[in-house]
Design brief:
Chain lengths: ~130, ~130
């Protein structure tokens, strides 16, 4: 047995962790209407895309990699708030295109995947141990 | 008695070794499957070695190919085969069912433990014989 198998599960832990970070960033910025330079530029929801890494020799997957973190191009939420400092002439404010419900669902998915990979690492560890006892 | 499997490999350790190798390969496939639960378009990988082991055990005479020009007898290669399943359950055409994978994971882990315990027993027996 070689230890590559732990890297496979490990790569998934890293990827799911990054997805969790992005979800946290989306949730934290659900109401952010300014960018880091102070300009009125509402936050855009970020999406993580995964890609699989193949082992050419065996045809099996060696793990998962984050291919890209892209911005969700869907339209911003327009809310009528005439008193808001960022309101336009018609009294509308552009809020980020972050849906809290969707982020919560994604968070549960990422958490489940993370736990499944932790479980597989535990099983592989016990397999290594039993192989060492032969 | 005719239907009883006869071990033609001579040494049971050899069969156990092949099965352990197959289980290791299968656990690799499961690791990849679980790691790619959220990868769109990923197809489930399955490793089969039991059929090959069965063939090897039941075969009366096994011809060996020692040169690349030799014709290989039988249909099965001597190492576990990887199958990619095309079916998918999810909207992102990902073919992984997490419950199925977790069950397979436990099954493979337990089988591996049982077989390595068996291998240990075989070696202990041999040790006993040598010591007399």
């Amino acid at each position: 047995m070689d230890m590559d198998i732990l890297n496979t599960a490990g790569s998934a832990l890293i990827s799911e962790r990054l997805r969790m970070d992005v979800i946290a960033s989306n949730l934290a910025n659900a109401n952010t209407t300014h960018d880091s330079k102070g300009a009125n530029n509402p936050y855009q929801r970020k999406i993580v895309q995964f890609e699989t890494i193949y082992d050419q020799k065996t045809g099996l997957s060696k793990g998962v990699n984050v291919a890209s973190v892209t911005e969700d191009g869907s339209p911003l939420k327009r809310v009528y708030e005439p008193g808001h400092p960022d309101a336009d002439e018609q009294g509308y404010v552009d809020y980020p295109n972050v849906s809290v419900e969707r982020e919560m669902v994604d968070m549960v998915t990422a958490k489940t995947a993370y736990e499944a990979n932790i479980k597989s690492i535990q099983v592989f560890k016990s397999m290594f141990n039993s192989a060492l006892e032969i | 008695m005719e239907n009883q499997p006869i071990n033609r490999l001579g040494n049971p350790i050899e069969s156990i070794g092949f099965a352990l190798q197959g289980l290791e390969m299968r656990s690799k496939a499961i690791a990849g499957n679980i790691a790619n639960i959220n990868t769109p378009g990923y197809k489930r990988k399955v490793v089969n070695f039991e059929d090959i082991l069965q063939d090897k055990t039941f075969k009366d005479v096994e011809m060996r190919s020692t040169d690349s020009s030799h014709i290989i007898t039988g249909t099965n290669p001597s190492k576990p085969i990887v199958i990619s399943e095309d079916q998918s359950f999810n909207v992102d055409s990902n073919g992984i069912d997490i419950d199925k994978e977790m069950v397979e994971l436990s099954k493979t882990g337990l089988r591996f433990k049982a077989l390595s315990a068996l291998a240990k027993k075989q070696f202990d027996q041999m040790k006993g014989i040598i010591r007399g």
